[in-house]
Structures are given as C-alpha cells and as structure tokens.
Specification:
By secondary structure, this protein is mostly helical. 74% of the residues lie in helices and 3% in strands. Helix 7 packs antiparallel against helix 10 and helix 10 packs antiparallel against helix 11. It starts with a strand and ends with a helix.
C-alpha cells in the first residue's frame, strides 16, 4: 500500500497517521515536501533580516561607514541569513536521524529521515509566530517569547542558562511529542524508553545551541 507523507495529519493526528504509515509499503512525497520546507525556511530567515532582526549591530555602525559599504554589508548578511535558513531544516532532519539511528536499529536511515520531516513545520511555525513579538516587544532574537527565557533574563546574568532555558518552548514540546509517537509506533519500542531518548536528544541539541549563542555573544562583546 502506498501512502504520502501528510505532514499536517502527522502533527495533528499523530497516532492514526503513523499507524497507517507503519502499514504502508511505499512512502511518497518526501523530496518535494522537503524542498518546499527548505525554501520556506530560507524566505522566513530573509524576512527576519529584511525587518532588521539580527542586523542591529550592523545598523549601529551606519554613521561610521559609507552608504555603499553599508548596503553591501546588508546584502551579504541577508544572503547569509537566507542560506542559513536553507540549511536549518536539513540540519534538524540529519541531526535527529543520525542520533536516533543509534537507538532505533529496527528503523533504517531512510525511515528516520521521513519521520524527522514532520517536526520541521513545527519549528517554522515557531519562527513565524515569534516574528511579531520580536518586532513589537523588542525581545532578544535568541530568546523565544513562548519560553521562560525572557522571564529568567530579569533574574539571571549568565547568558548560557538564559539561552538554554529559552530553548524549551511549547513548539519544542510539540516536536518531542510527535517524534516520540512516531518512533514508538513504527519501532514498537516502549513509549517510556522512546520518550527518554527523544527528550535527551533535545536536551543535547539545546546545550549545543545555548553554547553556540553564548560564544557568539562573547565574541560580540570582545569586538
């Protein structure tokens, strides 16, 4: 039986969808869905850059450099954020697929790639919903308004912990739920063990993200 990857069904009705996916012998639609999500991510990142998010430090230098150099710098930064957006979905899919390949040996690498595609729209939704908060409230772009990060920022001075706490959002929990359900159903492993693996994987990614954001922030301070 042939079944396409219906991403919306998978993230709204995961149990029914992934049970049907388990019974299908042929899964279609991965390539063009991935392509759409990759370009959507790139466009979303470019929108952030166009709105001035992430370019604050560059704009603060506008009185110190010529207009032509400033425009060129804006083009380069815009291109960089667009390319970063293209890479983001691919990184997410490969990161979790390679990690889960260690623990779910009954699933092949292709199946894991298919399953990780479902979490990409969730994180793109998060970026989209965060945009008006960043523009209207001026929240640090590295802190999600749907997390406790902005609150803890008032009480903590250590950037690493703030960035780490900020990585746990409603959307992050949603992605964990979808991954846990899909892996549990298709691998037939216990839900508790599956949930521990998925949560640990997200903790590992959050640690890497917080460490990277902290290092970037320290470099900016030094410069």
């Amino acid at each position: 039986m042939e079944q396409p990857l219906k991403l919306i069904d998978g993230i709204i009705q995961p149990k029914a969808h992934f049970t049907g996916l388990k019974e299908s012998k042929i899964i279609t639609g991965f390539g063009w869905r991935l392509t759409i999500l990759v370009f959507a991510s790139g466009i979303l990142n470019a929108t952030y850059s166009y709105m001035g998010l992430g370019t604050e430090e560059l704009m603060s230098q506008m009185d110190q450099v010529s207009a032509s150099k400033l425009e060129w710098a804006k083009v380069v930064m815009g291109l960089g954020t667009f390319l970063g957006g293209l890479i983001y979905p691919i990184f997410l899919i490969l990161f979790f697929s390679l990690l889960f390949l260690i623990f779910f040996k009954e699933l092949n690498f292709r199946s894991l790639l298919y399953l990780q595609l479902y979490i990409v729209p969730i994180f793109l939704f998060e970026k989209l919903f965060n945009l008006p908060y960043y523009l209207l409230l001026g929240i640090d772009r590295t802190l999600s308004p749907h997390s406790l990060g902005p609150i803890f920022q008032q009480f903590l001075s250590y950037d690493f912990f703030i960035y780490f706490i900020s990585s746990f959002t409603f959307f992050n929990l949603w992605a964990i739920f979808i991954q846990s359900m899909s892996l549990h159903i298709l691998s037939s492993q216990g839900l508790k063990r599956t949930l521990i693996i998925v949560v640990a994987s997200h903790l590992f990614l959050s640690l890497l993200t917080a460490l990277t954001a902290t290092l970037i922030n320290q470099v900016h301070i030094i410069l």
